[in-house]
Specification:
By secondary structure, the chain is mostly helical. The protein is built from eleven helices and no strands.
Length: about 325
């Protein structure tokens, strides 16, 4: 084991570093658990910022220069990103939409993302070269060292997109679970005579704790419905931010109701019933797959134990008899 370590580094040093990191993580966990976080505070701030932008006449996120109150590191990141002209290409617009789908609506989120996407491969590549070539951390052949450094750079280049994709998937799953309840509340509000704006605001208040992700998107849509010149654009923005097919069906229904004046409550009630049937069918599908899924664990873990319990005493008696 010690032969694989660089010169001057012992096992005791590694154990000391690991113990220090463990102590730091324990202190960090205790400190973070004692802090009371309000998840709605940040969402309300973003909604207020969006309302102020729409009041000033902006209907889309615009470029904003770093003010004096902002941290200097943000200005440095923005200068680096602008120096490479990363904010004016097609990839920047694609990443902006992906950040919206992940719940990051801040105008500086794209700057952070593009900066880390640019700097992280370079940083990880330098660290890999120093560790592999400088310290000889791994006893590899020259070709394998080159492949290891290239693999580290490749992983670092796709790491930001992978993390953002995982966050978006988890967020969509949470919204999918809260969607049928949201439709039921929206149907009740529509049958009570509320307009779409008032119904969305009421649903947001009721679902702020049970479905904060979906409530956040609906609150954002309610703000845009009150300020945008075309209400259809606000609903299209909702379908752009949320890629769930169910949400896109809801937005299409709302657009149709706004355009042709069809009864909103009846359409939403049909959609709610369809979504609940789909959820029930998915649950039945998982239940039908359960016997096939449990076959391998049954053979590997349960049947050997059962054979030992049933046949073990008889085998011991036979063995003692013949001996």
């Amino acid at each position: 084991m010690e032969a694989l370590l660089p010169d001057g580094v012992t096992i005791e040093d590694i154990i000391t570093v690991l113990a220090a990191m463990s102590a730091f993580l324990v202190v960090l966990a205790i400190w973070s658990s004692g802090i009371i976080k309000d998840p709605m505070h940040g969402r309300i701030k973003h909604l207020q910022d969006r309302r102020q932008d729409l009041k000033r006449g902006y209907t889309a996120p615009t470029k904003r220069k770093a003010t004096i109150g902002k941290a200097s590191y943000l200005g440095t990141m923005q200068n680096i990103v602008n120096g490479f002209n990363l904010m004016k290409n097609e990839q920047a617009e694609k990443f902006r939409i992906k950040l919206l789908q992940g719940g990051y609506r801040s105008k500086d989120a794209l700057v952070y993302f593009m900066f880390f996407k640019l700097v992280l491969p370079i940083l990880i590549g330098i660290i890999a070269v120093v560790l592999i070539y400088g310290f000889g951390l791994f006893d590899l052949k020259p070709m394998m060292k080159t492949l290891a450094c290239g693999g580290a750079v490749l992983i670092a280049s796709i790491l930001p997109e992978t993390i953002l994709k995982n966050i978006t998937i988890k967020r969509n799953e949470a919204m999918q679970k809260a969607l049928p309840d949201m439709l039921d509340l929206l149907v009740i509000c529509a049958e009570a005579g509320l307009t779409l704006d008032s119904a969305l605001i009421r649903v947001v208040k009721e679902m702020a704790q049970t479905g904060p992700e979906l409530a956040d998107e609906l609150a954002y849509t309610a703000v845009e419905l009150g300020f945008l010149q075309e209400r259809k654009q606000a609903l299209n923005n909702l379908s752009l931010r949320v890629t769930l097919p169910a949400v896109q069906s809801v937005t299409a229904t709302l657009i149709q109701s706004e355009k042709y004046g069809t009864p909103l409550a009846q359409s939403l009630r049909v959609l709610s019933a369809e979504f609940r049937n789909d959820r029930m069918m998915k649950a039945e599908e998982k239940a039908a797959k359960l016997p096939a899924t449990m076959t391998i664990p049954l053979i590997l873990f349960i049947l050997p134990t059962l054979f030992v319990v049933l046949i073990g005493p008889a085998a011991c008696q036979v063995s003692s008899t013949f001996s």
